[in-house]
């Protein structure tokens, strides 16, 4: 940073502080969202109107990096990643030391936090298998998680050690509370809800929880080529929870939709970079792994608009579970039972 006596450009000033304040209040920001914010700041600073359109990516970048430097003593950092669906980069203030549970604790009760943890576990475990990487769930499925598993099934040792485990066990939520907690997770920026009513982790959550997700769901001793619950995009190296997968079930190559488009634009053949099987663009990670199935479409036709209030999604994902237990072989992707 250069120091100029007359124009303290490289110096942290009121404009930077105002920007950081706006950023912290939102938690995330895109370049587009930053434009009116920076325009207002520049207008105040320069005493003449600066329009949003005049704000450049360079303006934004310099304010982001100044803000990031300013917050680093507080174990905060600004990280960014492309949104998995929208073609825009999302910047988020990320706490580099505290775990997500601690952060949720300021706004939620212990029972709510335990429920949210069960929801995230379900996204990455129950609804994320080698055959079907849905990595999302609908409200009906979330509702099934409102009560914690019974102590017999619960392997939580601290609860077992506790002589009065039963009375100490968390209570769980009512159905009406499930709805409001899920909604507040969307409002607070942790979950995103799709048009079809599926909840998945938001771009911000993926940035913030990246290492926690790896610690929680991936096996550090897994061998090369072994299926893991958290996977990364072959092109951009960020986590993929919505995107495309290789048509070869045992191949681990995953790509975001945007990344796949760019990746194959420069190549003559649409082959998987690892196993060279044809890249169909029709094998999905995320909710389309469910919604693009024949069974889901059929169910939706049958029940019309109320499809998301039916059990269709659960049936498709669960059917998958059962196959999972029996199989080990790969006898085609069609469900011909
Ligand atoms: Zn990518
Ligand atoms: Zn492949």
TrEMBL record:
InterPro entries assigned: Nse1, Nse1_RING_C4HC3-type, WH-like_DNA-bd_sf, Znf_RING/FYVE/PHD
CDD domains: RING-CH-C4HC3_NSE1
GO biological process: double-strand break repair via homologous recombination
Any one of the GO CC terms: Smc5-Smc6 complex
Basic residues bias: start-end ranges: 298-308
Annotated Gene3D superfamilies: 3.90.1150.220, Winged helix-like DNA-binding domain superfamily/Winged helix DNA-binding domain (1.10.10.10), Zinc/RING finger domain, C3HC4 (zinc finger) (3.30.40.10)
Keywords: DNA damage, DNA recombination, DNA repair, Metal-binding, Nucleus, Transferase, Ubl conjugation pathway, Zinc, Zinc-finger
Pfam families noted in UniProt: SMC_Nse1, zf-RING-like
Localization terms from the record: Nucleus
Keyword Manganese: no
The keyword Metal-binding belongs to this UniProt entry's keyword annotation: yes
GO molecular function: ubiquitin protein ligase activity; zinc ion binding
Boundaries of every Non-structural maintenance of chromosomes element 1 RING C4HC3-type domain copy: 233-275
Biased composition range(s): Acidic residues: 317-337
Enzyme Commission code(s) on record: 2.3.2.27
Catalytic activity: S-ubiquitinyl-[E2 ubiquitin-conjugating enzyme]-L-cysteine + [acceptor protein]-L-lysine = [E2 ubiquitin-conjugating enzyme]-L-cysteine + N(6)-ubiquitinyl-[acceptor protein]-L-lysine
Main location: nucleus
Region (Disordered): 145-178, 296-337
Enzymatic class: transferase
Subunit structure as annotated in this protein's UniProt entry: Component of the Smc5-Smc6 complex.
PANTHER family: NON-SMC ELEMENT 1-RELATED, NON-STRUCTURAL MAINTENANCE OF CHROMOSOMES ELEMENT 1 HOMOLOG
Family: Belongs to the NSE1 family.
Function statement: Acts in a DNA repair pathway for removal of UV-induced DNA damage that is distinct from classical nucleotide excision repair and in repair of ionizing radiation damage. Functions in homologous recombination repair of DNA double strand breaks and in recovery of stalled replication forks.
Protein known as: Non-structural maintenance of chromosomes element 1 homolog
Source organism (scientific name): Xylaria flabelliformis
